[in-house]
Protein: DUF1801 domain-containing protein
Amino acid sequence: MATNPSTKDEKNLQQVLDKIETMDESVRGIMRRMHEVITAAAPELKPRIWYGMPGYAKSASSPVLVFFRKDELMTLGISEKAPLKPAGDHDGLLMPAAWYFEDLDEATERRVAEIVRSAVS
Structure:
């Protein structure tokens, strides 16, 4: 049921929810859950559409820090505006910034929450 949002944040949230609802039925539930995990991990983030997909920023006018999308695979990513750090060890100076997933389980949800919290710190 569509609502008539009044604030910019509410309008942006509704656009994100609407975008998720247009995704293929086979992944729609997973993407809804991804939205829930992100917003629970960092409730201060504001959802909005970013390059046509759900993104999350500190405000409606600040850069997106976290996003997810569905192409061939589902992707969770952090943007270059998040505090990226080299992975170290065998990855040297590479900075992890994107993860592919096919489904969400408890362990994956915990890791997503960690990634989101690190992107807002």
